[in-house]
Amino acid sequence: MSATTDSRTALRVCPLCEATCGLTLTIEGTRITKARGDRDDVFSKGFICPKGASLGAADGDPDRLRTPLVRKDGELREATWAEAFDAVAAGLRPVVEAHGPNAVGIVLGNPNVHTVAGALYPPVLLAGLGTRSLFTASTVDQMPKHVSSGLLYGDAQAIPVPDLDRTDHLLLLGANPLESNGSLCTAPDFPGKLKALKARGGTLTVVDPRLTRTAKLADRHVAIRPGTDALLLAAMAHVLFEDGLVDLGDLAPHVLGVEELADAVREFSPEAVAGACDVDASTIRALAQELAAAPTAAVYGRIGSCTVPHGTLASWLVDVLNILTGNLDRPGGALFPHSATDKTPRPAGPGRGFGLGRWHSRVSGHPEAKGELPLAALAEEIDTATPEGSPIRALITVAANPVLSAPDGDRLDKALDSLDFMVSVDPYLGETARHADVVLPPPPPSQAPHHDFALNALAVRNQVRYNRAAVPLEAGRIPETEILARLVLAATGMHGADPAAVDTMVIDQTLGKSVKEPHSPVHGRDPRELADRLTGADGPERRLDMMLRLGPYGDGFGARPDGLSLAKLLAHPHGIDLGPLRPRLPQPLKTASGKIELLPAPIVGDLPRLRTALRERPAGLVLIGRRHLRSNNSWLHNIPALTGGTNRCTLHIHPHDAGRLGLADGDAVRIKGAGGEVTAPVEVTDVVRQGVVSLPHGWGHDRPGTRMSHAAVDPGVNVNQLLDGSLLDPLSGNAVLNGIPVTLARAGATL
User: Fold this and answer.
1) Closest CA relative to residue 585, chosen from 222, 310, 221, 330
2) What is the pTM (predicted TM-score) of this model?
3) Domain around 637
4) CA-CA distances (angstroms) from residue 342 to 457, 509, 521?
C-alpha cells in the first residue's frame, strides 16, 4: 500500500478513558497507522496519553470479532447477522413470556459511556423490556457519588466537578489522576492542570494510602488508613464548626440543615478519628483550616473513597465540605457542568427528589439505587431460588465483563453456565462473553461516530464535539447503533421490524413531550414539523441533532438562530467551546424543598455505622487497588503496547511488611480473602504504607474458551476473586473493593 497515495488524516475523540482527548489519526487505506494529539481541539489542545497513542493498535487488534457467534451443539460458531438476531429473539422471548421481564437481567459495562450506541439505546431496551434486573459497572465504582448527589440535590446525575483551571486549593481523596486521567471529572491533561495549579501558587493536597504519582506532586500527602475517608472528612467538618470557619457565602439561601449537621458531626473530632484514620489530629485540623482559608478551594474524591464501607458517606462529605466553605457553585470551587445535550433547563423550584429502595433484590433484599441492583448480587440472583420471583434465567451484557469486574468471579462463572440464554454485545470473546449463546460484535472505534453524552456532563469546561466514522464500515459489519436497535426489537417482541423504527419512536416521543412543556423552546409547536426539520445521515444523528437543538445552547428549531445544531457542529470539526463552568444554582436542584438538603434522612440513618468505625482497627494487612496509566479496567490487556513496563499485575507491599513475612521482590505470594485466593508476584516498595498491600484490577485473563491471545500470555490474577460479594456500602449497593482484610504467605506455604 502506498502511503503517498492512500494516507489521509481524520479527527477522533479518544474513547479509551474519561479524559476525552481529541486525536488526529493518520489512516492508510482503512488502517490507523498513527494517532497524535489534535492541537486545535477546543478541549484537549493536543494532549495525548499512551492509551490514545495506541488507538490504532486497539482498533486493529486481530482478536476483535468480526462476525456474530451463535452457539450450536455447545460450540460458538460464526453466523450471519440474521441468524444471530433470530437466535436472540428465540432465546429471550420465551423467558419473558414464561417468567416475566425481571427474569431477564441486563449488565451494562463502563465502555457504554464512551460510545454513541451505549448512550442512546440501553435506556430504550430497559424501558421496552420492563425489567428491574439491571446491573452496571456503577456499583463497583461510582454509585456512592450518584446516591449522595441524589440525596443532596435531588438528582443523581448532578455531580459537581472541581474547577481545575481556576482553583487555589485542591484536596484529592482516593484519586490518582496522573494515572487514571481523571474520573467523574472529565479533564484532558489532568496532570498539566495540577502542575498549572502549583505554578500559579495554589496548593495540592492528596489523601491516599499510596504515594502515587499524583501524591508525589502534592504539597501535602496524607497516607490515610484505607477505608477511613469518611471519618477524616467528618472530622474536618467538625473543625469548621468548632473553629467558626463555616461560611456558606452565596449558598446560604439555598441550603437546609446546617445546624443539624453541626450536631451530627459533633463527636467526630480530630482526636476521636485520629486513631482509626492513623492521621494526627493536628494534621486533620490543618487540612480543614487550610481549606477554609484558601481564596477558592475544591474537594474531590474518587474511586478510593467510593469503593469502601462508607462510600456514600464519604461522597456526601466531599460535597458537605465544599458547601460549608462556600466553594460549591462558584468559580474556583466545585461547579455543575452544563452539557450541550442536557435537557432544556427547567425553571428553578421544588422537584420530585431522589428515592432509594423503590424495589429490592430478590435474594438478599438489597435496595435499588438509581434503578440498579448491586453487581455483586448478580451471581446469587441467577443461582439461588427463593419463594418469591424467578431467578434470572436470561442475561444481556453490553460491553461488560462482570466475571472480572464483580466480586467472586468464580461463582459468577458457574452461574452464567446455568442460564437458559445469554447474549453479549462485545468486540471480544472474553471471560464473560464466552458464556453467551449469541455474541454480537460491534465495529472498532474508527468505524463508528463519536459524541460524549455522559462525559460532557462531567467536564471541567463546557464544550461539544462530534466525529463521524473515520473509516468506512467494513464489509459484513453493521453499526453498533443498529446492533443495539435490533437487540431492542428482538427483546421486546418486535423482531424483524425496521431498526430505524427505534430512533423514530424515540424522536416522536421526545418531541411530543417537549412541545407540551411550558419552558421548552418548542412549546406549542407541531412535533411532526419539528421532526421533518431534523438533519443527519441516520437515526442516531437525527437524535443527536434533536438533543442539541433542544439543549441549553441549542437553536430551539429556529427560536435561537445562533444556537447549536448538528449542522453547526459538523462545521466545527475540532469542536465548539461553550465557555468555563458557571454558577447554576438553584436551577439544578430537584429536591422536594428546592434547596440543598444537607442532612437527608438516609444519611442520618447511616451515621451510626460511622460512629462504630471510630473504634475499629484492622488486625492485619488490608488490600487496596491501583490504577495504571496504560490500562482501563479489563479492556486493554490484549494490546501489546499497553501491557509492558510498570503496567504489571504485581502485589505492592511495604519493605517492613515484606521483611516480617520473609518476602522478597519477585517471590510468588498467595493472597487470601473472604472470596478465595490468588497467587501473584511480589513487588517490594515504600509507595504503599505499612499494613497495606496493593493489587491492580481488571486482570485474570487465564480462563479457557476466550480469544484474547496476548492477554492470555501474561494473564495476571483477578483481584475481585478475593471478595465474596457480601461487603457492600448499604446506601448505594457499591461493592467494597478497598481496605479489605487479606492474609499472605509465600507460595507453597500454608495460609
Assistant:
1) 330
2) 0.97
3) 618-746
4) 8, 17, 14
